[in-house]
Amino acid sequence: MSTTLEPLESLAPTLSVRQVLMLERVLAGEPEVVAGAGQLDRAVRWVHVAEAADVGVMLSGGEMVLTTGVLLAGDDDKQAEYIRSLHRAEAAAVVLGLGRAFPSPPDVMRRAAERCGLPMVVLHRPFPFAELTEEVQARLVRRKFAAVSMSEAVRTALTGLITAGAPLQRMLDEIAHHSGCPVVVTNLAHRVLATAGERSAVDDVLRDWERIARQAGGSEGDGWIRAELGGRGERWGQIMLCGYRGDTATGRLLADRAAEALVLHRMLGGTSAHTWEEQSAQSLLTDLVSGVVPARQLLPRARAAGLPVNRRTFVPLVVRDGDPAELDRVLRLLGLPGIVAELADGATAVLLSLARDQDATVLTANFAARLSRTVVAAADPRTAWDDVPAGMREARHVAEAVASGVLDLPPVVRLKDVHLRGLVRLLRDDPHVQSFAERELDGLLCGAGEDLLAVLRTYLATGRNKSRTAQLHHVSRPALYRRLEAIQGRLGVDLDDFEQAASVHIALLAHDAQQG
């Protein structure tokens, strides 16, 4: 099933007064706007020819009324009431053909229309109203049919993506393609859960998100169109088209179709708004850890996600074997602003955002004390947002160093607590370190050497304690001695020599770090 549709900007189900006045047949009548020039974007739902003074009782709103004024000439009260009647009926505009009844625009009608804010247009060259009525009606019918067809096509395309198991981001990308503007999904607190659209345009929206969020409950305008997300009497978010350039009615139709699809996506996928929050945090923290996206470009996303970023102290943490839900619960319990997300390797990243006058060390320790059977790896606090990615990577390195060895560690582990192991972890991708590790361990990196490598790892980790090593490998001491002799022979080293043993130990730490 193809999901590629044309952009929807030209498929508005109505015409505006301005668009009607630009039609070739209307231009031939030399139209002149004499009142209500600021209201020309009103939607024209229908065109109606009427001369009666009480025309308003025949209208239902949105009509462009055509008249020659033949029944109004010479009676100022009827002229004023005619305009007021149109205003009460919420007509879109009134078009007066100049001629025998009114050779020039009547001041009474013009002034009344200006007071009411009703667009009033006079035609200096008369032509049959039937021609204009026929053309406008035909255009409106075609547009309404096109709008209905568009609505069904969009619904079919998005339903097809859901059926194919497409992720949320793919759905939003499709919606952004059709709308031609940034698309933002938020929770009820107006925190951004997901975005789509041209990256620079999305960043512009998020950069000003605090103001946009404050106005989110106001009326739509300037292309800001939203639709509620929810079902079964429960609202849990909204989708916003940010700066939609087409007709408002078409944009609202598109937003409604998008909202229907997102609700269906959530129901069929077994996800929740909270899951979308987790995905948003995961995307942000993954980008921070990777360093692929500059931190400054991620700042609008962080702010829009509800993370305080102005004049804050940031504490990057990585928790091994941590449950993201539990970590988030502890943050809320302690009242600590932060975001939580599981990383690709199973570790969980946490970024705390603390006020400058708060004690980051104490609060981090309180957070770690609330966790069970986990070790919290922390980087030093950062006061500049640009330094956060390096801090996240440092915390991840510390967590990896903790996971690779049995160490006596405090509840919050920092780089200084993992000593040499931490340093090697930070340098593991250096080509010189890689060459050093391969050169030092060359005799054990293939074949039967793997078993001996395990013995060597235990021997060095226990501080060259032969009894402990034999016990952990379930062998006798004589058997261990033979294996140690084989290791020394393959490597060409004397493990009783401290410097040579230290060199092999560093190489083994580097090898394990690279493998991990």
Automatic annotation (TrEMBL):
Gene3D superfamilies: PucR C-terminal helix-turn-helix domain. It comes from the Bacteria. It holds the Pfam family HTH_30. Residues 21-139 form the Purine catabolism PurC-like domain. Residues 452-510 form the PucR C-terminal helix-turn-helix domain. InterPro entries: CdaR-like_regulators, PucR_C-HTH_dom, PucR_C-HTH_sf, PucR_dom. This is Purine catabolism regulator. It comes from Streptomyces canus.
